[in-house]
């Protein structure tokens, strides 16, 4: 609980946890539903498929960009933290 509230001494791991939670939210609520539309698993209009594919791609790139800082924060805690 201290890490989630970013208390002193556990700030780096808390930031890493928040980034991980944001990434998990992206996967389950943005990437995966739009990917299902783009792949035709869920029936949608043909004009909606490219929009869904682009949304899934951008959210996936956002997750990729967050992965390095997330790992850095989690490792930083092990090596002294703040």
Features:
mainly alpha
Could you characterize the architecture of this molecule?
This protein is mainly α and about 80 residues long. It has one domain. It has two helices and no strands. The longest helix is centred in the C-terminal third of the chain and has 31 residues, at about 50-80.
Short description:
This protein is mostly helical and 82 residues long.
Instruction: Give the C-alpha Rg.
Output: 17 Å
SSE ordering: HH
- State the helix count: 2
Uncertain spans: none
Between the first and last Cα atoms, what is the distance in angstroms?
17 Å
Biggest pleated-sheet summary: none
Helix content: over 70%
| Residue share in β-strands | under 5%
Number of domains: 1
Oligomer description: single chain
The helix-and-strand class reads: mainly alpha
Shape: elongated
Q: pLDDT average, as an integer?
A: 92
| Number of β-strand runs | 0
Topology:
Elements lengths: L10 H29 L8 H31 L4
